[in-house]
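**User:** You know discrete backbone vocabularies at least as well as I do. Would you mind producing a protein record, from residues through to fold? Write it directly below this note and I will take it from there.

**Assistant:**
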Amino acid sequence: MSRSVRLSGFSEDVDWRPLVLFGEPPAELVCVFCGVISVPTLPLSSGKHACRVCRAQISRTVCSQQDVPVDEVEKVMKMKSSCINAVSGCEFNGTLTEQEFHYSDSCGYHTTSCPRCSKVVLHKNLWKHFSSQCEDYVQLSASASKEGGRECAVGSVASNGVASEVCEASLHPQQALISSYMKRCFAGVDANNKKLNAALVQLAKISM
């Protein structure tokens, strides 16, 4: 049986990310209130367990931390899950321990926002997206555009060639560099268009 869950207290690579876990985790690590698989959990008088956040909300004083058996934690880390980027098209399935390395080092389905049109695209397809004038490789659904494929078209680009202004300060340095480069390119195109229009106007006057 598989279901979407959240983890807390395991590692920064898997904590609080939506994970589809295959199998049932140890009941001692599942918060009875929020369902988060948490390390540590705190025992309740009913015999159930709660995460620290929920326990603090039902009692102003949080009881002492319960020692979590190492084998229970290892049991969770050995459970299989789909990749965090499954929604973007990644088909990798592996243990949570394997997920840590896969997500950080080898997953090819991380997404980013295009600095030109603000649409979401796979990072590996960003330059192809640029080359298509922001028409292709846009992530609009759970099925990702595959390598070399074209997912679907994006909406019309604004008349000045830039769909929206991008705050340079909020962008990753590499994105800011790309954004600056693309803006210069479109500025050059606009300048050439103005010169061409002026020449056509002059030609029309001469012909009259």
Observations:
- The longest strand covers residues 2-5.
- Helices lie at 52-58, 70-77, 96-106, 126-131, 173-207.
